[in-house]
Amino acid sequence: MISPSAKEVFIQGITADGRTFRPSDWAERLAGVMSPFRPGGATPGSHLSYSPWCVPTSIGGVKCVIVHADLREHDVMAWDFVMNFARDNGLQIAEACRVPDVPPAPLP
């Protein structure tokens, strides 16, 4: 269960039984479907980029989709669609937050 205070949810491409979810481009497909759900709503051409609220990525070699809580506030049915996709396919879900890449500090 996702806590209401979670800011980001990571849907991981690993099933409950530990198998890699297929097809291999599932994260890009899911994020593509969600592309119209964005700040300011859909605009001409917005289908050509991912929504900042539903971003495909890879973490440690595992395909993931990072879903931001702002999607839930914007359109609860869109949020439910993404969460039901994960549940229906037995995908692992984790509450987390992204840490921006920071270049290492120079050595003295």
TrEMBL record:
A Pfam family recorded for this sequence: DUF3579
Domain of life of the native organism: Bacteria
InterPro entries reported for this sequence: DUF3579
Name the record gives this protein: DUF3579 domain-containing protein
Species assigned in the record: Variovorax guangxiensis
